[in-house]
Structure formats: C-alpha cells, structure tokens
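Researcher: Structure for this, please.
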Amino acid sequence: MSLVIVHGGITVTPERLEEVTAAAVDFASACRAESGCREYQLSWLTGAPQQLRLLEIWDSEETYTAHSAQPHVRQWTSFISAAASAPPAFTKLLLEEGGQPSSDQGTHKVQVPAG
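Model: Predicted structure, token format:
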C-alpha cells in the first residue's frame, strides 16, 4: 500500500483573498472528514499573502482517488480556479513500503523502510 502526499499551491487574486479564506475553512473541514484522510491543510504562505498552500496526506491511492471524485472537491476546484491569477502547481508523492523507488506521469514514488 502507498501513502499519498500532495503538496503545492495556487496564486489567488487580491480581491478574492477574503472569500477564498472563508471557503477554505469549510472545504478543508469536509476533506478532513473523509475516510482515509490523515492530514489536510490549506494555509497562506508567509511573505506571499496571495499564495494559498496545500498539504494533504491519504492512507492510499484508493482513498485519494475517492477524495478526488467527491462533489465538494469538484466544486472547490471550479471555485479556486476562478479565483486564481495563475495556474496551480502540485506534486503528488507515493510512499511505498519495500520495493524500488520509481516515478510516472508527474507522480514521484519514494521507498520507505518497512515497519
């Protein structure tokens, strides 16, 4: 089984900062309530107040995929895209017990010791 970690961010237009902040509270809360979610954080980058940062950790690729298909995720994606001044940048990491590290299609796989 692979632990999934996604991190990155998006630049939000200045006039939408308050609106995004308010919406992010409810969105992150809904994500944290999902099965398999170990961590879900949205925060503003210190020194760059328009940069919304994301860190999410999921128990498995299956729980991450299920999360991605949730209606609140589709709604948030549409909302945040409209509030953005630049395209988002995200990295997805898969942490696997045993096996060899590998990567494919923008996903980085990292080997971690078993146990």
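Researcher: Any notable elements?
Model: Strands lie at 2-11, 37-45, 48-58, 89-97, 103-104, 107-112. Residues 100-105, 111-115 have pLDDT under 50 and may be disordered.
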